Structure formats: structure tokens, C-alpha cells
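Sharing a chain and its predicted structure for anyone who wants a worked example. Both blocks are below, sequence first, C-alpha cells second.
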Amino acid sequence: MRLVDDTLVLSPSDLTGAVACAHLTRLERLAARGELSRPERSDPVVDVLSRRGAEHEQRQLLGLAAEAGKRVVTISGAKKTRADLTALAAATERAMRDAADLIYQAAFFDGCWQGQADFLERVDRASDLGGWSYEVSDAKLARSVRATAVLQLSAYTEYVTRIQQREPENFAVLTGDGLRHTFRVRDYSAYYRGVKRRLEQVALAPPSEALETYPEPVEHCSICRWAERCESQRREDDHLSLVAHGYAPLRRLCLGSDRSCGEHAASIALRPSTCWARPLGSRPTIGKIKLGFFWSRRRECREPPLRPDQHLGAPPLPPR
């Protein structure tokens, strides 16, 4: 997500980010509009994975190009302005109409969305281009196919469909173990359209209608550039996720619509007079949360916010 000539332009990576974390979309939107500075994240593990991913992509390119009769066209150039993106998309369309056997780094741009697919492979299936058409394939270092890859390939397939006026039957993921995983486009198109529609509603909404989100901890946090900022906010708010056994489903039941709950709100949500009116599960589960809250205060050398005999401030009795 970035501003290109004062216009917000989205990409398939924004789709995967939106699925991983709703708050990430909000932060990226603010950063794209210049209201926040994107943190620089230096992670040796991520750097190694990026390098290995690039090497895997090059191996796949060499393997596909080595097949008999392959005429490979590589799309390259600057991507800073709308004119740059339009030129790359036009070069990709020319290569498709010229019946290139393999198009590497195929670029797409429709004024709002941009994308760059690893490979477009020609197949013998008639389309508006002629007696051929194209299907998308992408190289991924992972040994299994993830939902994020399916979303990205669905986006690229939509661009290809617009050009050749015929939807491809399949797309493929070339995984790090050397296998080729083929998927039917129609099996995932409805899911893709739904995710895309929700992202556009959030990212392209006027600033006054921007959706308020909270940095709930998710799996994506381990590789996210915004992780330190979000962790600082949760600690400042004394969020319930910092309490042992304060799992996400239980937090949602405890907090309801109050996404930025601090220790006082958490105490109210779990006090004996209200907690049993909510479907929070068994009493041992509530006891685990109370015990986790009690020891988190002791570990931080802080006194519980309530009297020792009340609510979360009191450790539960040992199980019988």
C-alpha cells in the first residue's frame, strides 16, 4: 500500500496483510498517507528467508526456461510513478499478445491495484489473444501452500482474465521442495472477491470513516515491522492478552466491544457479579485467568489494582 502520484495504490500483499491482521491495514494506510513513519525492521532470519526465496525463484525460472521451445520475456523497469506502472502493465500485455511462452515478473496496473506475478505460462486454450491463453504460477519457498499464496495468485489471475477475456482454469504454486501444486481458479474466486471487497472498504474509505482497530496479538506479529509499536501499546493499555490464559476468544467474551481494555475494565469484566452471566466457560478457566493476572502483577513488582480479597487481585483457591 503506497501513494503513487497522490493516489493510494493497493497490492496483493495488502490482501494477505488484511487477512493476517486488521490493525496492520490501518497502520499501513496511515503510513502511506504520511501520518506515520514505517519502522525499519532488521531481522536476520527474515533477510535469510528473503534471499533463499529469491534463489528458489531463479531456480524455477531456469527450469521453466530450459523446457523446449520456451521464449522468455522479462518485464522490468521503474515503479515509482503511475506512468512507470502503466508502462510495465502495457509491456506485459504486449508480451501476452505476442504469444511469449513464458513471461517473468509480469506486471499489472489498473489505477487502483498493482501486482507482479512471478510467471505467466502459455497454455493451448483459446482466448481473446488468439489460440492461446495464460495461467499464473508463483514460486514460494515454503514446502506447503498457504492461504496467502492462494489470495495473491487469485489477484494475478483476475488481471490476466481482463486482458485475455477468458478466465484461466488453474494457477500453480511452485514450492520449495520442488513440487508443483495446481489449484482450480473457481474454487477460490469467491473467497478472493470477499477479502478484496472488505480491504477496499477499509483502505479506500474517507479518513473520517476510517475503521478503528486494536493491535490484538496474532501470528503475523513475529515478522511484522509494526510489532514493537503494537506491543508497546498493549503494555501501556495493560491489555488482557498479557495475562496468562487470556486467549483471544475469551478476551472477546470478556471485553465485548471494548477493544482497548486495561486492568480496570478487565477486572470489571471478570468480577463475580458479572462473569458468570457471560458464557466464559468453566470455573477452572476463570481461575486460570485470575491466577495469571495475580502473578503478572507480582512479576512486574506491582500491586494488584484491587483489594487482595477481590476479583482478579486475589489468587484462586487450589483445585480440589
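Comments welcome. The chain has two domains: 44-194, 238-313.
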